[in-house]
Amino acid sequence: MALSLPRPHRVDVQIAVGSALAGLALWGLGLHTQTDRPLGTTWALIPLFVLAGLELLRRSMPQTALVIGTLALLADQFTDGNLASIMMFTDIMYAAVVYGTPAAARRIPVTTGMITVAVTIGFLAWFRDPEAILVGVITGLVSFAPATTGVLVRTHREAAVAARLRAEQTALLAEMDRVQAITAERARMARELHDMVANHLSAIAIHSTAALSLDDPKTTRDALSVIRENSVEGLAEMRRLIGILRDAGDDREPAAAPTLGGLGSLIGNARTNGLDVTLDDARAPDGSKLPAPVELAAYRIIQESLTNALKHASPGLVTVAIAQSRRALEVRVTSPYGTPSGPRAPGSGSGLVGMRERVELLGGSFESGPESDADGPDRKVWRIYATLPIDPSDLDPADEGVTE
């Protein structure tokens, strides 16, 4: 099987060709780095071409090129030498640190530094002449200097790569945050739209079905009256939501979100739609002002519970109970559980999901499902129970009407 060498980089080819031509020019002019060597001048061409060939491997096989290049440079010391050979060796040393493995990049500068010190001390002890230090200086310039330069360049490149990776990660995290924010906003808008409109549309669907199925002018008029009232209120709610979502260019403030102060109107509207509803508000008459998210969540939970009762509950009493302490607001809605006797509107199942999401966003607990009625073991009711935490620091310290 033939050995397949990697294709050299275009820049490496240019370096190899340029260095070889420069070395030939110096050799032709008779410019050598040393004289009176055992081998003649012609022998200096062999290390020259070997090092030029190794330049082609400076990126793909840097450590192999360094080992062979070191042997070629040592062989060059037995010839008259060539400046181009020395320059190519320094480039191969530099490339071995820049393009080699991380272990080699750490090891080569230390090794060349120790060699430089050893050569300096050795020649100084041999010649016993301060000029022997120049040999150590030349050794350092040929080996240690390009190695340390390679370390600096490699460190700078790695820092640039790390900075680019951090920037890409930051951009990725920012994009993930943006997507999550958009998803959360879409879910919030879906909950608001469902809670605001579902009640009115359910009433319209039920009463329109009754008006179409019963041939009674009075029933038809009453149904149309309820349909008109719910359609007007639903349209107003839609306009309020659109006003909040639209980026208006004027100074108009968005309409206020519903609060528990509007429970009377909500219960009255449910009664108009045909529900038998009672409200048990156990909060103190001068109860403290609840945080806006808590009031909105409680209002929407009650609104959706009444909508579900209108669509799915069997005839009977629907009870809405509210209790407040300094740490939590409790909402409980019970409705008769069974098969409705009259027309019913289809449900999507998203109402319970939306209520649970509202409660979980506030860190509360939510339960829903059928259970036995306390008034009769054979009867069942559908119970909605939500606990909405309240931060005591959000309450009015002067309020003494709310207790633990």
Describe what this molecule looks like in 3D.
The protein is α+β, with helices and mostly antiparallel strands. The protein folds into two domains: 10-170, no CATH class; 260-404, Heat Shock Protein 90 (2-Layer Sandwich), CATH 3.30.565. The protein is 60% helix and 11% strand. The protein contains ten helices and five strands, in the order ααααααααβαββαββ. It has helices spanning 10-29, 45-54, 62-76, 83-99, 102-127, 133-213, 217-245, 263-272, 292-312, 350-361, and strands at 276-281, 317-324, 328-336, 365-373, 376-389. A five-stranded mixed beta sheet has the order 1-2-3-5-4, covered by helices on one side. β1, α9 and β2 form a beta-alpha-beta unit. α1 (10-29) packs antiparallel against α4 (83-99), α3 (62-76) runs antiparallel to α4 and α6 crosses α9 (292-312). It is rod-shaped and about 130 Å long. The two termini are 86 Å apart.
Outline the secondary-structure elements.
Elements: H1 10-29, H2 45-54, H3 62-76, H4 83-99, H5 102-127, H6 133-213, H7 217-245, H8 263-272, E1 276-281, H9 292-312, E2 317-324, E3 328-336, H10 350-361, E4 365-373, E5 376-389
Parallel strand pairs: 1-2
Antiparallel strand pairs: 2-3, 3-5, 4-5
Helix pairs in contact: 1-2, 1-4, 2-3, 2-4, 3-4, 4-5, 4-6, 5-6, 6-7, 6-9, 6-10, 8-9, 9-10
